[in-house]
Amino acid sequence: MIKKIKVEQLKPGIFVHDFNCGWLHHPFLRNRVKITTDEEIEKVMHHQIREVYIDTDKGLDVDDAPTKLEVDQEIQVEMTKIDEPDVQDHALVPLGEEIVRAKQLLDEVKKSTQRLMDDVKLGKQLDMQQAGTIVDRLTESVLNNSAALTSLARIKNKDEYTYLHCIAVSALCISFGEHLRLDDQKIKALGIGGLLHDIGKVRIPSEILNKPGPLSEKEFEVMKQHVMHGDCILRQTDNIEEDSICVTAHHHERLDGTGYPKGLKGDEISPFGQMAAIVDIYDALTSERCYKNPIAPTEALRKLFEWSDNYVNRDMVERFITHLGIYPVGSIVRLQSGIIGVVVDHGEKGLLYPIVRAIYDTRKERVVSPFDIDLAKRGAEDADEIVSCEAPGKWNLRLEKYLTL
Questions:
Q1: Which side of the chain, N or C, has fewer Cβ within a 10 Å radius?
Q2: For residues 275 and 194, what is the distance between their CA atoms, to the nearest angstrom?
Q3: Does 345 lie in the same domain as 270?
Q4: Which of the 8 DSSP states describes residue 384?
Q5: pLDDT at 86
Q6: Domain end: 290, 307, 324, which one?
Q7: pLDDT above 90: percentage of residues in the chain
Q8: Which residues, at least 6 apart from 1, have a Cβ–Cβ distance to it below 8 Å?
Q9: Domain that holds residue 19
């Protein structure tokens, strides 16, 4: 059984199932390990990890600890209490139509972003005009239909992760800023900050940056320097907003001071830095990496909500969830009826009732001709609801195929 405990409850003989730190580094080569000594517990505490998940079938139990299922259910209940915005986001262009353009756009800006970063790696001045053009193009797509670009941007080739991650973070920052009704100048600054938030990685050795597995303590210390490198690069760049620089400088800081590079706390972290931290974590969790599988968007939002007790801004997390929906567009879900489907739009009734495009019937064990189910409009006799989210790789879907129907 998987349970959640505070690190103060750790003792030798407990099997750690998940260090529950997502973006942080822990002192073990694997994320699942049996604790054998007090020194190992001290290492966990030294890395300022607050809570971990344990597997009682592989190690000692902690009697009063809640199960993972209980924790998830409690978080889900709290998430459903999030207030809906007075003004809903409305797409100007149908999802299927914008998906086609967004796919071509991603191919083009990926090349532009790679050239932008490669030039900086070669010692050239950062081309802010080019960065601005990329962000302008991303903004146009987001304004047409934010779900198109942000859902496609989750699909990443492992070998191109760095560039695609920067594009995805930029698109999500733009979309989030638009949702918060920031003015155009602020949205562009936020988008540029998102695009360049990892620019400092051009100065990290490739063998560390592209290592297909966990980093050692020494390697992680080198990796953390990308934030300072990025801040230095941007401060030597002309015509860049301070808000954009703050995104790079603060996106790994955490509200309780456990982040890096400066260990800033609370309001010491800029609002744009706090927004970017949420977006960066969400995209990293939902993306496939050479050393980990992606998790479902809903699970990523649940983790962000869980971590908003200490690490990230709770109010901003709630606004982010309101924007994307508890079940973001592109999520794969299982309905009570046995239907497997893809979320294609937010419903009118609330965060729990999106529009789902049915693609497979598990009870009949067959593919179905796609049709849409609006969970907000189901009557008493044909009521249906989401019972779980499916792992992104389980069904081997070409997501854009079902979003363009």
A1: N
A2: 10
A3: no
A4: -
A5: 56
A6: 324
A7: 70
A8: 55, 56, 57, 61, 67
A9: 2-66
Alpha-carbon distance of 225 to 203, in angstroms, equals: 9
Residues 160 and 246 in one domain: yes
Do β-strands 386-389 and 2-6 pair in parallel, antiparallel, or remain unpaired? Answer: unpaired
Q: What is the pLDDT of residue 155?
A: 80
Position 135 confidence tier, pLDDT thresholds 50, 70, 90:
very high
Per-residue pLDDT tens over the stretch 31-48: 889 999 999 999 888 888
Domain check: are 56 and 111 in the same one? no
Token pair for residue 282?
């969400």
Give the model's pLDDT for residue 108.
Answer: 94
Structure-derived torsion over alpha carbons of residues 371, 377, 383, 389, reported in degrees to the nearest 10:
60
Q: Which residue do the tokens 């965060």 mark?
A: 351
Please give the DSSP secondary-structure letter assigned to residue 110: H
Which pLDDT score is estimated for 267?
95
Is 83 domain-assigned? no
> In the predicted model, what is the mean pLDDT of residues 100-120?
94
**What type of residue sits at position 78?**
E
Q: What is the chain's length?
A: 405
Flag whether 337 is in a domain: yes
Strand order in the sheet with 33-34: 2-6, 51-55, 15-18, 33-34
Neighbours of 365 (CB within 10 A): 8
User: How is residue 216 annotated by DSSP?
Assistant: P
- Phi and psi dihedrals of 340, rounded to 5? -100, 130
Q: What value does the mean pLDDT take over residues 263-289?
A: 94
- Measuring CA to CA, how many Å separate 290 from each of 86, 157, 269, 296, 365? 41, 9, 31, 17, 32
Nearest-CA neighbor of 400 among 12, 95, 6?
A: 95
Strands 51-55 vs 366-374: parallel, antiparallel or unpaired: unpaired
Same domain, 262 and 297: yes
Alpha-carbon gap, residue 355 to 72, rounded angstroms: 23
Please tell me the distance from the alpha carbon of residue 253 to that of residue 266, in angstroms, as a whole number: 9
pLDDT band at 159 (very low <50, low <70, confident <90, very high): low
Q: Does 307 share its domain with 355?
A: no
Q: What is the mean pLDDT of the chain?
A: 90
